[in-house]
Amino acid sequence: MEVYLLSFFCLILCSSYPLFISAASSNVDQLCNLLGGWYVTPQLCHSVLDSHPRSRTTDLNGLGIIAAKATAAKASSIAADIQLLLLKASSDINQQNVLKTCLKLYTDVVPLLKGAITAIEVKNYSKAETVLYAAFEVTGKCDNAARADTFLWSSLNHYDTEFANVSWVAHAIAAYIERYGT
Ligand SMILES: *[C@@H]1O[C@H](CO)[C@@H](O)[C@H](O)[C@H]1NC(C)=O
Ligand SMILES: *[C@@H]1O[C@H](CO)[C@@H](O)[C@H](O)[C@H]1NC(C)=O
């Protein structure tokens, strides 16, 4: 009887112990510690992935999809914000041109990013890596256009930095899986 009880408790404790260990070191923790080669700090990686409800339970492919979707969502919301800035903009033709340039960049990248999400879903990581790198380059292009106008530069630079952060993390995840597998 005692032996039976003991093994019963071991069944509970011994089987829950490894679960506890793996929960403490989830895929997201492991992945975020591995992206340094792409200059992604664990903090930056976590800032993109942690808020998603599935980030602690999904696999590397799922984390890649979460990051690519976050990049597409960010591009859409930045495009919507720039559209508003354009509506409120003065009649200054230079400011309007800067805003139109950035609006086109962030609008055009959204369908490309949908392609990157699909590419990760079908495990074509090299395609995803290429598209996400091209998305990251949007930030430099908008930033360069915005430099022509001090008034707009600070708000556009903030959007560019936000987008650079999320797109670079998504790119690094696709590049990591492309190199080392899931
Ligand atoms: C991945 O996508 C690229 C670019 O679209 C394509 O050339 C390549 O054949 C695809 N690879 C696979 C394995 O589907
Ligand atoms: C971008 O990431 C860096 C590094 O984690 C962080 O310091 C910065 O606040 C982020 N910027 C924006 C606008 O999200």
Automatic annotation (TrEMBL):
Pfam family for this entry, one: PMEI
Signal sequence bounds: 1-16
InterPro entries membership: Invertase/methylesterase_inhib, Pectinesterase_inhib_dom
SMART domains referenced in this protein's UniProt entry, alphabetically: PMEI
Keywords, in A-Z order: Disulfide bond, Signal
Molecular-function GO term, any one: enzyme inhibitor activity
Entry similarity comment: Belongs to the PMEI family.
Protein name: Pectinesterase inhibitor domain-containing protein
Source organism: Rhynchospora breviuscula
